[in-house]
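Please review this one.

:::
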Amino acid sequence: MTAATVEVQGDTPPDEPGRPWWRRLLDGYLYGNQYVVTALAFVVALIFGAILIAIADAPTRSALGYFFQHPSDTFSRGWDAISAGYSALFRGAIFNTNSLYSNGGVPIFGPISDTLLNAAPLILGGLAVAVAFRGGLFNIGVQGQIIAGAICSGYVGFAWNLPSGLHLIVALLAGMLGGAIWCGVVGWLKARTGAHEVITTIMLNYVALDLLSYLLGVGGFQQPGSQEAISRTVVPSARLPHLFGDLHSGIILALLAAGVVWWLLNRSTFGFSLRAVGANLFAARTAGMNIRRTYVTVMLISGALSGLVGCSQVLGTRLVVTQDVDGNFGFDAITVALLGRGSPGGTVLAGLLFGAFRAGGVVMNSQTHTPSDVVSVIEPVMVLFIAAPALIRGLFRLRGVRGGQSAAALAKGWNG
């Protein structure tokens, strides 16, 4: 194949005879562009969510009873429900002009702060899953690692007396260490015995939950005088600094972690080894790479990132350790990593998107009575379409460039 020839990977449907040159060029670009496919999957998921909103709306269902007499009623009421639902979602996640300091109300940055507050743990958890993905491992135990990190950072936060600043650093390191050890056990078992990481991480999730219940019961964590399963409060010297609204500096930790992970994966020797092991285990072993050490190291890193989620929850958002301290971020992190296609940049964007869904979904439910489950359905539908790009291409009738077609042949189209 010469330098002027471009092969398009995958099965590409043939061009239709007589199809305009500009359409063939556009289809060829869209067919192979993963970002365009992701954006189209987002659009399809929103359309699917709109249908669910209309079905859940009582006036719309009522109008369906006489659809053939007055079909316009069904469409108008359905549109009213959809526009009201998505408008409330936007106001709760991005921008709410009704809260411009009126009567001492929530400032205009309130929705953004809620979105970023929810996005920080999602980004950190997504990075944990994405790093393991690059090494060919599936870390499904982020929940347990979050709990381990929350236990360690919470204990240092409420039980130790250290100078301000140093106390926060030690608490963060303790949380990272707790998550790293919890996940490092999985990497060691994988390296030494070949135990599948999906099984071991799931089992360790249950161990972490039981350990947390013990500590909040008779293990000495419970707040004195409280009848609830809640720990003592983290002292001010160990808390993450406040930014604005309800937002703390956990979002800064998340963005810094994303930058470190990007450098680690794309600019470091270990990142090259990790990607080689994830791409082809046998070729990496033949090249002399230490597979066992790579497994243990990547799981330690993944667990440390998960532990930071626990730190964000205990040292910034909740300030106490509770039985639901993981906030279901562990399993949502898997979805975020899949949506972000395992890259740090994509994970950050996916975390921001899901953080907006979390923040806006509460407002949508409270103001329009749209079930919050609608937002919960949109997220997996989006991932489903991203995982099946051929389905998106079929829905939007995207045609690929014919396999083996040269760049010179495409360039002729510019001249008609």
